[in-house]
């Protein structure tokens, strides 16, 4: 589904991502972990076209998407959610998702018909899936933090992606919220046959749902494989020493 | 049901049934030549034209979140286009008016192509730079624009047919032109409304709210911004065409940066988060200007004071403040 080959990116001399290669199979749930500043967000920005790599390639379903603009990677089936919640705060929850459907179905160039009755059913059904049905009329910016994260997931899902990149989907959540979000993600991935690639700090979450884990350290990939292999990798243990990996 | 609650139904999103306010206002203004003085009609024409100018800006400012400091360029280009076509080329108004819109939109498309490559303050500065270039050309190109002398004596359109209609025979050209302005402005505003309420308009609001996220739901942000810039420029051009005739002449200061500031003040004063905000701003600012310049020559001082108060006390503009007050009343009533 996703293949990253020899991806390198530096910012004025500082190498943020160095020669990273990675494969994610269709319908796999994969995680990228690593300490703060390891290059996880940069890697995501390179994959989604937000940044252009210095070298290396990104393939989505065999198509080269290296350096392709975000709005185009989105249309090719790559959805994304952000570490800091990223929604349309002064639009209602309904309008947030409706806008995403309008763009997904290519109706944004329509200057003349009324937008208001469009895609009501699609929005309703998506609201049900992400658990926001009774918040449809609320302004996005006034939702609770957890609900904003759910809305953001909805925005990513509206474009019907095959591959979903989630940057710390449970950042800032309580233990209860984290648990619910993970169950929601697992259920949606199952129902829609999604491939997931996510970054996460919470090792319990990572080892709980990931089928494959890649470990970044100082921009380099130091381990990649099934959770059990990664957990016992000596270099990973060294990097994460004292950070709770042994308890996970 | 009291009058207040009815207003709330009209301007808020809480509608059950709606009072057709736009139709009522339109008919009331249309009756102005029968009930008002010649001076009232003069002011009414000016307000209607300014309202269209400000509402065209608000497609950028309020809907797409784009701050243009050079919107007067397209207003002025429309004025010059219509004025030159009518005065020097003898083209009838019915062709010169739409041509002014098309010409202004074309310039907006070309300048906008460069502007949308930048964001925020850099976008704003580039719109200003292009406008000042247009101004410099209009100011110096004597053969075409009349340079610093401008283009005086732009003719009124031939409205003999309108004056021949029963009930209109007592009106002079100024009043007849008022009817033409009012109908053209109303149609233009109706089109702007449709665009704002369309799927295209919805996508513009996502760019206003969060351009980065908009790209990640699949929006080609630059393309949408350019489309909005072109449309807004076209409608500014239409309002400029009307103003050149109304003003009996087109002058380089139509394009000057202070004209761009005036229209932005109108928009913010009325409330850029509301579709009708800019029209209210045009009304209030024009009337205030008339009243205050009768008493004092310090109009810019008064204007500055109004702006300061507005920005600190009513950041949502007049309609924003009104809407907030009405929804408080509404809540109390239904508590």
Topology:
The complex is a heterodimer of chains A (248) and B (335).
Chain A: E1 2-11, E2 14-24, E3 29-33, H1 40-47, E4 55-60, E5 63-64, H2 70-75, E6 78-81, H3 93-104, H4 120-130, H5 145-158, E7 163-167, H6 175-192, E8 195-199, H7 203-209, E9 212-217, E10 220-225, H8 227-231, H9 234-239
Parallel strand pairs in A: 3-8, 3-9, 6-7, 7-8
Antiparallel strand pairs in A: 1-2, 1-4, 4-5, 9-10
Helix pairs in contact in A: 3-4, 3-5, 4-5
Chain B: H1 3-11, H2 21-30, H3 32-35, H4 38-64, H5 72-87, H6 93-115, H7 120-140, H8 142-145, E1 151-152, H9 160-163, H10 173-197, H11 199-209, H12 211-216, H13 221-246, E2 249-250, H14 257-270, H15 277-295, H16 299-313, H17 317-333
Antiparallel strand pairs in B: 1-2
Helix pairs in contact in B: 1-17, 4-10, 4-13, 4-14, 4-15, 5-6, 5-7, 5-13, 6-7, 6-13, 10-13, 11-13, 14-15, 14-17
Q: Strand-and-helix sequence of chain B, N→C?
A: HHHHHHHHEHHHHHEHHHH
| Major sheet characteristics of chain A | 6 strands, mixed
Strand content of chain A: 15-25%
Q: From the 3D coordinates, which CATH architecture of the largest domain in chain A would you assign?
A: 3-Layer(aba) Sandwich
CATH homologous superfamily caption of the largest domain in chain A: P-loop containing nucleotide triphosphate hydrolases
**Number of helical runs of chain B?**
17
Q: What average pLDDT do the residues of chain A reach? A: 89
According to CATH, what is the class of the largest domain in chain A? Alpha Beta
Cα(first) to Cα(last) distance of chain A is: 28 Å
Radius of gyration of chain B: 20 Å
Largest sheet of chain B: 2 strands, antiparallel
Please give the share of residues in helix of chain A: 25-40%
